[in-house]
Design a protein that fits this description.
This protein has about 525 residues and is an alpha/beta fold. It is built from 20 helices and 13 strands. It is elongated, with a radius of gyration of 26 Å.
Length: about 525
Amino acid sequence: MPLSILVAVYVLFATNYTFWYRAVHYMSDDQSALIALAVGLSAAFIALFTALSTKYLIKPVFIALIMVGTLASWFTDQFGVVIDIDMISNAAETTEAEAGHLLTTGLFFHVLLVGIVPSLLIAWIRIEHRPFLCKVGRNLALIIPCLTVFAVAGYGHFKTFAATFREHNDLVRILNPIMPVASAVKYAVRQTEERAIVVQALGTDARRLPAENGLAKPRILIVVAGETARAANFALNGYGRQTNPELEKQDITYFPDTVSCGTATAVSLPCMFSVYGRDAYTHEKGRSTENLMDVLAHAGIKAEWWDNNTGPKGIADRIASVNLSTSGDKRFCVNDECRDGIFLDRLDAWLDTVKQDSVLVLHQLGSHGPAYYQRYPEEFRHFKPDCRSAEFSKCTPEEIVNAYDNSILYTDHVLSALIDKLKARSSTLAGAMVYVSDHGESLGENGIYLHGAPYVFAPAEQTHVPFLVWLDRDFSAAFGLDRPCFDGSSVQPRSQDNLFHSVLGMMNVSTKAYDRSLDIFAACTGKPTS
């Protein structure tokens, strides 16, 4: 019993720095409520750990909870991330190279001091176990009073707690190790349920309508699924730095008011290619329904996916796909992680083979953190000094932003070069490019870094994303686009909900799955597309 009390209090206070820091800030006007919160949660944790203190389980369970809390606290304290089901999903689907950036010396010492040392002490301690019924009685003699204290503390300051948790529901989501364990259980249940999923067909009635201008040459649309690019750092969006020098010279249309479906790739990527909008989308719906790429294939359009990230998240299961990050090309790749210039290197050969209307998706590595400095080659180190570490505590805020801006500068180059390659083939192909980032990124605002915050309280830096379109003259004419009208409409609010239907409109695809109201081009074509 003493061990349960000690471990409970240790876990509550040693692995919850961010929780208590925010609680002090949120309840600064009511010190008595803050004390009641500390007393009530201590009592609740003691009750929980006492309930778990059964023979054969007590040591492994206590050690496991300490280690979970220790690991979760590092990422919460360092980056402000929330370990929810989406973050668990991201961790489960990450690559070894991506995970390697997070294995820093700071993490090692944190785990050693906060997790391993107390775990070794628990393993070393000899525990005297009483007979089962006697132990149950003694445990209940502690659990019941603890739960009573918890209830009284909550009731006595109910109004303060209700207002605080309603206005700052992030507080509940960062409580270690409760939330990480609960999220892991939810993820395991979801994975089990997914094994029984049967994918439902979508858009099997899809067909291509004739080009408006009688175009004979193939139409090529390159959809670039960006990674971790936030609109706030795009010069095209009004950022004070010149991060888009090449795109500003291209004839593009930029949409300054665009929001993402989620704040992490595991959510946003499948959502933006699904027929469901953000309000209707769920992971289960996304996995159990065919997506944009399937509908294009049903229409007889060549659909292909090139990945330079953590995979297509099920989107490309039924079409041709290539994982470039495993190519081993030393010009671009190190440890199964490649800079996005690898797309440019492979594109000419692919374009030589195109004989029909095609949509190629390029899934970028983009600006994925925390190792921003590895996302661009030396010649794009324009903003200096740039953070050359994946451990932000070793860099100044200015260095972190410089490294991130350099990654955006390189994305600008890649996108502009893609456009140039399509322009160079205008005599044989009609080309277009759509770029939209999957989600944004926090760079230290309000103490938050990286991405993956629950959408309900995610900062705008993680949900406001860059979105742009480039079309050559023949491609625009093929679906009857009034370009001045379209450019004028760019100030209207957009979201990733628009991608599915806009691509179908661009490619003249008629299907019942198409929703004209979500097609960003429809109002400027003067004709229905279904």
